[in-house]
Amino acid sequence: MLGPVILAASRSDRMRRLISAAPVTKPVVDRFIPGETVDQVVPIIKDLTGKGLEVTMDVVGEDITTPEQSYAARDAYLELIGRLKELGLGTKAEMSVKLSMFGQALEGGHELALANVRPVVEAAAAIGTTVTLDAEDHTTLDSMFAIHEELRKDFPQTGCVIQAYLFRTEDDARRLAAAGSRVRIVKGAYKEPAEVAYQKKSETDKAYVRILKILMEGEGYPMIGSHDPRLISIAQELARTAGRKLDEYEFQMLYGIRSDEHVRLAAEGHRMRVYTAYGTDWYGYFMRRLAEKPANLLFFARSILTKG
Prior knowledge:
Elements: H1 2-9, H2 13-21, H3 25-32, H4 38-50, E1 54-59, H5 67-87, E2 93-97, H6 109-126, E3 131-133, H7 141-152, E4 159-163, H8 169-176, E5 182-186, H9 201-217, E6 221-225, H10 229-241, E7 250-254, H11 259-267, E8 271-278, H12 283-292, H13 294-307
Parallel strand pairs: 1-2, 1-8, 2-3, 3-4, 4-5, 5-6, 6-7, 7-8
Helix pairs in contact: 1-12, 5-6, 6-7, 8-9, 9-10, 12-13
EC number: 1.5.5.2
Pathway: Amino-acid degradation; L-proline degradation into L-glutamate; L-glutamate from L-proline: step 1/2
Catalytic activity: L-proline + a quinone = (S)-1-pyrroline-5-carboxylate + a quinol + H(+)
C-alpha cells in the first residue's frame, strides 16, 4: 500500500525540498541515476556496453512549464546523440523520451512535442539507433500513440511503451504487435484510478503475462521491462513457444537494480538493455523507482537509518 503514498509524494514540492536536502539522498540516488551530465554518464555507457550489455538513455525531467524548457530538453538529447556518435556507440545505445519533457502538457502541446521529438528521432536514426516513447499517466497516452504512429511513417523503428496495469493495454498490444514494431511492456508506475487500472499487484501480473503473450505471438519486437524473476522465466518460455530466436526480443532492466542478472542474461545470449537515466531533475524518476519495488524503498530507508 506504500506505492500510492510515494507516488503522491513525487508530486509534492514540500517532499521534493525535504528529500533533496537530506544528506543521505545523493549517495542513494546515485545508485539509480549515475550522473547529471553527459560527461558523467559516458564512462557508465562504456562500462555497460563493454560487458556485452546495451543501454537506453533517459534524460530525466518532466515538469516542463514553458516552451523554452521543452527546447532545452530536446537539445539535451541532441547533445547525448552527438556524444554517442563520437564514441561509435550508436548501435548499442538507444534513447527513451517522455513527451511531457518535450512540452506535451502545454497549450498546443501535442504539436509542440511532435515538433521537438522529431529531430531527436532523426538524429538517432542517423547514427544507427532509435528512440522509444515512454508511457506516462493514462491521460497522455492517446497523444503519445498518435505521435508514435506519425513518427513511424518516416522512422519505423521508433518504439513505444505500454503499461500492464491499464485496462486498455491488451487492445493496445494487439494493435501494436505488427511487423516492424518495437514495444516495451512494463507494469506501470503512475498513480491511476480504479476506473482505468488494476489496483492489485496480482491482477497486474496476470495482465502482464496476457499482454506479453500477445506481443510474443505477434510480428513485432517485444521488449520485456521487468526485474521479476518469475515474469522473466515466463517471458523465456513464451518466446520458445512462439518460436522466437534470442535476437527477436530483449530484456530491459533499470540501472542499479539486479546488475548481476543483467550480466547473466547477456551471457546466456539474450539481448539485455539497461535503462540508464541521468540529469539534474531526478526527483520524480527516483520516487517512482521507490514506489515500483518495496526493496528500493527498504534500501533508501536503511541508508537513512545508517547514515542519517
